[in-house]
Recover the amino acids of this structure.
């Protein structure tokens, strides 16, 4: 195992975590005041303590912070944290998880931060993130129910078990509410669209031995289309210089096109009359190839999903007697969401009998013996052909979490909790797609006897009628669910007294069972018919059981010096190689004076493989590969050395055609991947060293250097590595009879001699999951909180939070050279630094907050062989501002006006990005950028 190494020390400011220490005072006439300090449980430990700051740094976001900074969702709040430097896929731009919102701390991945609800595990999003991992969906947590969110960055496996490699996020809900608060709010954008309407009610009460809290929340988010932004509604909104565009990028996109080979590829002119049958298509021309029907559909994609969320949260507590309480928590969340997209068909999706026959040439090119032509067809269906339903994808999601517990005191001095928690997440998705073989037969007839295809030109150049739509389209519906059941018992208290104080302990026993099940439509994976045109999917189902025991000790060594020890053992009962996983943690707190805390925390970490990594069924996807074997073979032919051709048994004439006709060393291929049951756990270590200093009552700061190491990280077997290994095996660099080469050859198939430019190209790749990667990151966090009272004029406050990555090392595959400078690598699109500054001003009635977010520099999208590539560079940091103004009309009524993205800031345009919206949507806060300047208004009444 690679050892932790703190490489540098820097500066970090953070909001003082606001330790809310409850104190009770007993007053008697003419007697001394006696202060009694109550212990509370803090995220990062199960031992109750009198101070929120400990050996491990904690960031706390309160309900007031959520309001002050103008956050609309919990996801917005978490994503804004300076520690969230990693790339992330939100719901705004589609993908495999087109309606989920996650967070990525320290760039270790969204599946490596453990999310808790009131200290208990909750069900993951039932779909697989990017078709690979199981993650938590932050969209399921309603703002109205949140009291605060605690985040402990760094490894916490010895306390919480698996998943806590990058940190732990504990969402703490409201309880003990004794008043009723109604909040009505909404937002709109300066450029139009993406309006939001929200209403919530929080109430509660207490009667004798019973108290309860109820939170209801409902919000409606309007969809935002690209056409609603002037910088996204045209194909020439691209930031690259138009003079650098190749011919195909300068002409109208090819919406309805037929191409045939006649001394080169030429478009078959449909005629203006054919194009005019469609509402928006134009008779367009590409000088080198001819006429077709085209339309610029740049503005028709969904930038932000339309969404309706509703939730109900209920908490209650019943005092059985002075020593025992019964507690219940229930949270139910429901979401209905939609996004628009386009549907297409081309001749890559001909029926299997044609593709597997002698007339198919690969990549959508095919031969029609009846007229002796080589053909390629391409078509995007227009709204008039969809009859109001074909372009909409719908998402129906729910989450239910319930926790029942008994808490109290036993043997007079020991606090206990016995609990059972169950959480389930469900998802249903639906949308219309073209049935592959039916769409093929509609446009390209197939003669079963001769195996010959022929094109129905009347249908091809005519809009679908409703009967045609109903014939070739089908409803692609799928569903998935995940659940986690956790039961356990915890006891904590003081063991015995030492000269410096009491030795405190916590002991835990826990059992967990987690399950997931992804069921796509039978047609998606070819279990019914021949699949959908252009759509693959991922399925899987599995379960695992886990038992755990954990022990923590807090030992006061001398006055001011506290030693925290933790050990945990998790045992897994599943199909993997994890088995038992012990973890350990040591923390040191030293207070030389009351105002200063010096601290350090070290621990080992582990993470069991995601269920989908283990149980993923064979699933399809499309990806681009670089064909190193083909490149080497083409180079040999170009050099007049046919003996240097690497592809076994290749016909030189056919290979020459592949190498000369529209040759490209990179192209898209179909891939199949599946789970791996022999995976073992990911392991690592985590270390933080720092201090908390409060020199004045109104000034506090923290500074922590961190180092996180992760080894044996689970990843897919890299396709690029397979392609390189195939070349090396065939070239003799590797022993062709070795197990490595045998494994490599089993992972790909090539076309045979097609007589066309597809001869010998890769047809399909196969992959699985492996423990192979390593990543280590060193950086620092700095936080500062300062308030200054201006006599009778109010209080000015300043808060800053700064995270900086000093070094990132990465090894993408076991045995590869370690990339020691990966932090600055042009393939690394994670922020090296993030800063949040807040300036506030408070009077009795007014509250002003101006928040600045600074996102560090990012590299452009480097691709040496891409025509859009500009000179390598890093784009300047992005600054965004939120402003909030609250006025307290009286003790019961409050109104707040906010402006998010005050300066209407946009991400730095990347001239090498071809895809809208032309910036790195996985790094920048894409939702806020696309919305632009947003105005919010909220009215709160308490009674």
């Amino acid at each position: 195992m690679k050892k932790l190494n703190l490489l540098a020390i820097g500066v970090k400011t953070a909001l003082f975590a606001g330790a809310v220490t409850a104190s009770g005072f007993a007053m008697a006439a003419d007697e001394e005041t006696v202060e009694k300090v109550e212990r509370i449980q803090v995220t990062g430990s199960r031992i109750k303590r009198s101070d929120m700051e400990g050996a491990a740094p904690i960031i706390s976001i309160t309900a007031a912070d959520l309001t002050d900074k103008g956050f609309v969702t919990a996801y917005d709040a978490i994503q804004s944290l300076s520690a969230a430097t990693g790339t992330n896929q939100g719901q705004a731009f589609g993908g495999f998880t087109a309606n989920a919102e996650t967070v990525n701390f320290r760039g270790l991945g969204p599946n490596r931060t453990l999310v808790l609800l009131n200290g208990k595990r909750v069900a993951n999003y039932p779909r697989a993130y990017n078709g690979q991992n199981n993650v938590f969906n932050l969209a399921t947590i309603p703002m109205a129910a949140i009291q605060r969110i605690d985040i402990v960055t760094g490894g916490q496996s010895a306390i919480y078990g698996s998943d806590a490699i990058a940190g732990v996020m504990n969402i703490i809900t409201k309880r003990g509410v004794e008043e009723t608060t109604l909040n009505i709010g909404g937002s709109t954008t300066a450029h139009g669209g993406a309006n939001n309407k929200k209403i919530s009610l929080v109430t509660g009460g207490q009667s004798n031995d019973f108290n309860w809290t109820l939170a209801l929340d409902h919000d409606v988010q309007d969809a935002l289309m690209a056409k609603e932004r002037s910088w996204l509604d045209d194909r020439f909104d691209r930031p690259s210089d138009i003079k650098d565009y190749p011919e195909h990028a300068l002409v109208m996109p090819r919406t309805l096109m037929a191409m045939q080979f006649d001394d080169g590829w030429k478009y078959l002119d449909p005629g203006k009359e054919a194009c005019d049958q469609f509402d928006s298509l134009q008779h367009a021309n590409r000088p080198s190839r001819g006429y077709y029907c085209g339309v610029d559909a740049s503005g028709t994609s969904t930038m932000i999903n339309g969404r309706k969320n509703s939730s109900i949260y209920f908490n209650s507590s019943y005092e059985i007697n002075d020593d025992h309480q019964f507690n219940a928590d229930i949270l139910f969340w429901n979401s209905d969401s939609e996004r628009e997209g386009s549907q297409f068909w081309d001749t890559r999706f001909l029926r299997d009998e044609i593709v597997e026959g002698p007339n198919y040439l690969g990549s959508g090119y095919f031969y029609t013996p009846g007229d002796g032509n080589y053909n390629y067809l391409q078509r995007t269906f227009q709204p008039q052909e969809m009859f109001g339903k074909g372009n909409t994808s719908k998402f129906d999601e729910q989450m239910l979490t319930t926790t029942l517990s008994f808490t109290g005191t036993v043997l007079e001095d020991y606090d206990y909790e016995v609990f059972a928690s169950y959480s389930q997440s469900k998802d249903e998705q639906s949308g219309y797609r073209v049935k592959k073989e039916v769409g093929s037969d509609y446009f390209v007839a197939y003669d079963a006897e001769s195996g010959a295809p022929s094109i129905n030109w009347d249908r091809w150049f005519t809009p679908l009628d409703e009967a045609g739509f109903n014939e070739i389209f089908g409803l692609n519906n799928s569903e998935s669910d995940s659940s986690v059941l956790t039961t356990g018992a915890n006891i904590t208290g003081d063991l015995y007294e030492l000269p410096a104080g009491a030795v405190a302990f916590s002991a835990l026993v826990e059992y967990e069972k987690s399950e997931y099940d992804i069921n796509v439509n039978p047609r998606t994976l070819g279990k019914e018919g021949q699949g959908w045109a252009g759509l693959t999917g991922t399925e899987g189902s599995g379960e695992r059981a886990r038992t755990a025991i954990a022990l923590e000790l807090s030992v006061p060594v001398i006055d001011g010096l506290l030693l925290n020890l933790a050990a945990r053992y998790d045992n897994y009962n599943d199909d993997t190689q994890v088995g038992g996983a012990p973890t350990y943690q040591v923390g040191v707190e030293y207070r030389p004076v009351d105002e200063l805390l010096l601290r350090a925390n070290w621990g080992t970490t582990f993470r069991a493989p995601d269920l989908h990594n283990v149980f993923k069924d064979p699933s399809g996807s499309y990806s681009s590969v670089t064909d190193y074997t083909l490149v080497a073979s083409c180079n040999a032919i170009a050099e007049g050395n046919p003996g240097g051709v690497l592809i076994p048994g290749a016909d030189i004439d056919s290979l020459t055609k592949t190498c000369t006709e529209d040759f490209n060393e990179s192209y898209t291929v179909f891939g199949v991947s599946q789970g791996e049951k022999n995976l073992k756990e990911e392991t690592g270590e985590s270390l933080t060293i720092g201090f908390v200093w409060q020199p004045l009552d109104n000034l506090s700061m923290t500074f922590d250097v961190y180092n996180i190491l992760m080894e044996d990280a689970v990843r897919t077997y890299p396709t690029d590595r397979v392609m390189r290994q195939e070349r090396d095996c065939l070239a003799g660099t590797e022993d062709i009879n070795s197990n490595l080469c045998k494994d490599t050859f089993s992972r790909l198939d090539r076309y045979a001699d097609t007589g066309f430019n597809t001869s010998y190209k890769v047809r399909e790749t196969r992959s699985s999951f492996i423990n192979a990667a390593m990543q280590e990151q060193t950086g620092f966090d700095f936080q500062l909180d300062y308030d200054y009272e201006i006599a009778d004029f109010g209080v000015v406050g300043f808060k800053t939070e700064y995270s900086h990555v000093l070094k990132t090392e990465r090894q993408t595959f076991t045995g590869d050279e370690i990339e020691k400078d990966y932090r600055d690598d042009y393939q690394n699109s994670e922020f090296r630094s993030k800063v949040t500054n807040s300036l506030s001003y408070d009077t009795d009635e007014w509250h002003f907050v101006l928040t600045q977010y600074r996102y560090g520099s990012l590299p452009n999208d480097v691709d040496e062989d891409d025509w859009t590539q500009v000179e390598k560079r890093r784009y300047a940091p992005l600054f965004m501002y939120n402003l909030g103004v609250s006025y307290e009309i009286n003790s019961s009524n409050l109104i707040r006006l906010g402006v998010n993205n005050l300066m209407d800031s946009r991400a730095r345009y990347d001239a090498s990005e071809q895809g809208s919206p032309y910036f790195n949507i996985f790094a920048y806060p894409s939702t806020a950028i696309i919305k632009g300047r947003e105005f919010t208004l909220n009215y709160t009444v308490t009674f």
In short: The radius of gyration is 30 Å. The CA atoms of residues 589 and 599 lie 5 Å apart. Residues 1-36 have pLDDT under 50 and may be disordered.
